[in-house]
Amino acid sequence: MLALNEGMHYIRCSRYEYLVKRGSISNYSFSIKDEEKTGILDAMFEIINYPIELKDLEEQLASLSVAPNSDQMKSLIHQLLEIEVLYEISKKTKQDTSLCVIVDDHDQSQIVTSTLKNEQYYVTYYSIDNKSSSSLPYIDLENEKDTKEVLKNFDYILLFKRNFSPNTFHKFNKLCLDLNSKLIISYLDGNEGIIIPLVNCDQVGCYNDFEIMRESSFYNLLDYQVMKEQLLLDENGEIYVNPIHFTILVNQTCLLLEQFISYTNMNYFAYSFDFERMVNTKSRLLKFPKCPSCQGDKNLVHAFI
Ligand SMILES: [Zn+2]
């Protein structure tokens, strides 16, 4: 089924020319011309009712007296799909999507549950903190077999952490690679929110590749290593988390998830929200050829060896 993107303005300049624009400064700004003056744009933007099957769309366009020949019509539909004016409605809807949400048992769990409450996903929550008094079911990461039994039934596994937790991330990375499951890691690292969507690991690698790439960009590596050693000893230590930062992180994660479910399940970037400097950046996820976590050779212990 094809639908017309309702988030855009379709401005009629003439019967044979439309300006498509998402917003004042948006990159999505196209002038579409019907060079042959067939009236096909007029039909597509003003006459056809969406959503519509591709076959029906072609038939309806062909039935118009001024319709162009079949090749022109197919090429135009293809172009409109490429620039996201038309899009394929995913067969999978929110109601069909099952989410496994792992969340710390602190105030953050309330933020996650209240954000996801309004969405229509099929959500199951778990905790990995055995010291918590949470009513959430507990997953024991040390028990790999049972954990895999739990995780294997979900379309997406969302891991929210209030702190940089390399141990937990590596454990989930391994479990999800073994199960071939889609994993989205979202965490706060001080005043920075980070989202790592690992939904196509065969193309972009795994969490281990991301961690190597991120560490390679640090100029204060020694300080970082000292902090990381400390966190490896106690990942669940108490730390103040700004609820606004965490709320933004959860909302951004939901936005990305919606994109993956509605449009594409490909992702090539990790996202960073620096709340100190108010800068948002995205980094290309890179797959290292010798990553010991997601590549074949398990005898290697480091990607650069
Ligand atoms: Zn890897």
Care to give the gist of this entry?
By secondary structure, the chain is α/β, with parallel strands linked by helices.
Q: How does this model look, in words?
A:
It is a single chain. This protein has 305 residues and is an alpha/beta fold. It folds into two domains: 87 residues; 191 residues, Rossmann fold (3-Layer(aba) Sandwich), CATH 3.40.50. The protein is 36% helix and 21% strand. It contains ten helices and twelve strands. The strands form three sheets. Strands 7-6-8-9-10-11-12 form a seven-stranded mixed β-sheet, sandwiched between helices. It has a three-stranded antiparallel β-sheet with strand order 2-3-4, with helices on one face. The longest helix is centred in the C-terminal third of the chain and has 20 residues. The termini are far apart. The model has no long low-confidence stretch (mean pLDDT 87). The structure holds zinc ion.
Work out the helicity level: 25-40%
Q: Enter the CATH topology name of the largest domain.
A: Rossmann fold
What is the name of the CATH superfamily of the largest domain?
A: NAD(P)-binding Rossmann-like Domain
Oligomer status: single chain
Q: What is the name of the CATH class of the largest domain?
A: Alpha Beta
The sequence of SSEs as H and E is EEEEHHHEEHEHEHEEHHHHEE
Bound ligand species: zinc ion
Distance from first to last alpha carbon: 49 Å
Give the name of the CATH architecture of the largest domain: 3-Layer(aba) Sandwich
Mean pLDDT: 87
Pick out the low-confidence regions.
none
